[in-house]
Amino acid sequence: MNELTHTASIPRAFFALLRRDLLLAFRRRTELLYPLMFLLVVVSLFPLGIGPGPALLARIAPGVLWIAALLATVISLDSLFRSDFEDGTLEQYLISGHPLTLIALAKTLAHWLVAGLPLVLLSPLLAIWMNLPTRAMGVMVATLALATPILSLIGAIGVGLTVSLRRGGQLLSLLVFPLYVPVLIIATGGIMAAVDDLPYQAFLGLLLAGLITSLTLAPFATAAALKISLS
Amino acid sequence: MLTVSQLTFERYFQPVFKPLDFRLQAGGLLLVTGANGCGKTTLIRLLAGILTASEGSIKSTAAGTAYVGHLLAIKDDLTVVENVRFVRDFLGTGSRAVSEVIEQLGLRRVAHQLARTLSAGQRKRCALARLLLCRVDLWLLDEPYSNLDDEGIGMVDRLLQQHSDNGGGCVVATHGNHRPPIAGRTEIQLISGHRSA
Predict the structure, then answer these.
(1) CB contact under 8 A, B71 and A231
(2) For an engineered disulfide with B190, which of A53, A127, B38, B184 has Cβ 3.0 to 4.6 Å away?
(3) CA–CA separation, B11 and A68 (whole Å)
């Protein structure tokens, strides 16, 4: 019995997990719409609350879009490990012998594909609503494309820590929002620079650096957090 | 394949069970019995490595562990086939056909139903697919007979016999009267470690 490999290969397990999570997301697709609807509602409330002056809207557009994106991400985050924790799948991950870090990465990637990517795709429409100048449109999409994965990766650490708590979702937002502040500052700074026709490449470079850092480090922290939550 | 010495686990500074010593040989089966709340599930979770022992040691030479606990790790929004296929691709070696495993579990009729529509016994059978698909030495089964009908109980016994014949070890926790008819069976009764009472 020993001479046989006792467990599936790691890439095979990684893609099996990714495929299953995407299939589950598809089965629960109405749940996927809530964060997007929330995003639409929040962004459309600003012109109503502040007044529909085109110049004013254009000025606040980067901040509004990004804060709405942060809120929508946090709403979608809580489900990342919740059902796995409640139905015992998380225990099975631990026992499987596969590195928990790669499992965390597969789960986070699946989360970004179903929660982050639609947000990036929807953002040009929101930018038009907010009267964001066309020349800044590309940069705004670029900041979201680079930074929404960071939001998922950092958020996953918070989810890992709070998944065993009864009302973990509320604590989660308190935990992760402070960590999102640098991303918010850099991303909106980049869009503002593009609006003002200033060089914006450095902001995108910083976001890319942040993406690479969180991609390499966050899954380890998430795995450690999940282990704490299980014991 | 498993050597446990002076194992204790404390919850809120209370030991859950009295210190434990036992050995599990290849091909052996250890039956853990005891009243509700005496720490059967805790012991199984300790052996699985989900919990960490407060004192004592667990030495395992097993290549791989399969665990079926109270939480069945079945996704309600997936069909039986999809659940089993995920187990095969994620945990198993993938050499067996999914349909064959489902047939063996007696779930052919409900194979394409969502897991949420299954009965408790059918869900249990679906979770047992893990044992058919993983080539691991050590099985940790927490109340494997619960919710199963007579035919299902017979199936679990056959699986245990087969695993034992192949040289695998098994720890089974149960509070029921049914005893798996395995030759190398040993039994320990857990005694609650609470000092008060």
Answers:
(1) no
(2) B38
(3) 43
